[in-house]
Each structure stands twice: as C-alpha cells, then as structure tokens.
Amino acid sequence: MQAQVRAPFPFALWAELARRDPEAFEASRREILEDLVACASPDRQDRLRAMQWQLDQLRRRAGNPRQACDLLAARLWQRAMGREGLMARLTGAVEAQNSASVLPFHGGRVSQEQGRPASEAQSE
C-alpha cells in the first residue's frame, strides 16, 4: 500500500480569509468538515456530526479565538487522558460501558430473573 501525500495545510490563506471575511471562512470551514464527514462510513456520520456540533458549541461559548483554542485543547485532553478517556480504555482501567448479561437460550421465552425458559420458571 502506498502512502498518500497531502499538500500542506494553507494556514496563511485560511487566516487571511478569516480576517478579511469571517462569514466566508465559516462557510468554507463547514463545507470542508461536511465533505470529511461524508467520506466516513454511513454508520459513523451521525456521530461525527454530533461531535462537530459539540466542538462548535465550545467555539461559540468562547469569548475569543484564544479561549476557543484553550477550550478545544482541554476537551481533547479530557477525551484522551481523562478518567474515562481513550488511554484509560486502552490500558483497561475502564470497562466498556456497552456490556450486557448473556442469557442462555432454551428454545422458548427466557425468564430474566433466573435465565431459564419462562415455562420452567412458572412451573416451580
């Protein structure tokens, strides 16, 4: 597999657009983000949009670009290194929250209290 070479991010161009025309900057930013989300598998797109909405809310809440940067960095740090963050999950410090009890299947309805078919649970 050959690695893709991407052009460097044109920071100066984006900074100039943000300074000169904030509305055009925001429209372009939203368009690029939506293009990126559209490249993801369909089952992940809603989650990615929800995550971007959360980040946008942090940006809106900030009083200035520096504060927005600080809030976004803190969120990233929390998600990576926080008590229930990525690192804790990778090291096994936090159990997955999507767990469930597996009940045995006996060919009929299962009594959740005892893990047996409902007909057996009722006959006692």
Helix and strand arrangement:
Blueprint: H1 11-20, H2 22-39, H3 42-61, H4 65-81, H5 86-90, E1 110-111, E2 116-117, H6 118-122
Antiparallel strand pairs: 1-2
Quick structural summary:
This protein has helices spanning 11-20, 22-39, 42-61, 65-81, 86-90, 118-122; strands at 110-111, 116-117. It has 124 residues and is mainly alpha-helical. Among the domains are: 10-39, no CATH class; 43-86, no CATH class.
List low-confidence stretches.
114-118
Spatial arrangement of strands, main beta sheet: 1-2
Question: Mean pLDDT, as a whole number?
Answer: 82
SSE arrangement, N to C: HHHHHEEH
Approximately what portion of the residues adopt beta-strand conformation?
under 5%
- State the major sheet: 2 strands, antiparallel
Shape: elongated
Please report the number of helical segments: 6
